[in-house]
Amino acid sequence: MELRFNINQTIETELYYGLYTIYILGGHHVKTNPDFFMQIENITTGEDIELTEKWPKARDFKNGKKAVKFYEFQINEYGKFKITAHNYEDIIIKDSILEVFDLFPFSILNRLNSVILGRSQKSKNINEIEILIR
What we know:
This protein has 1 helix and 11 strands.
């Protein structure tokens, strides 16, 4: 099972027993504020599913897009769930993991990354950021 939706959407879906992973799609460098979180609520019982934040955050490609593995969670029984991202408004997603060198904006690595490799230093727009659950 695979769910894909924009970060600013709330969806309701059925989930079956199993281990799931939440990816943030759009780039390999994700920076969130400390208040950012995902909520998965069982609509019938009103209980929240406990999410485990991944550390370090693995980078990968999912469905042809750059992805960062962010959370994992376990569903123990079938149910209908509401999935929401909270406090995502100031999330920063950039194309390359090399952009973590923002501390040194004039460094050789940033220069190589942005000019020679043609990678953008601009953050993605909220409408370009997606959540993938599989």
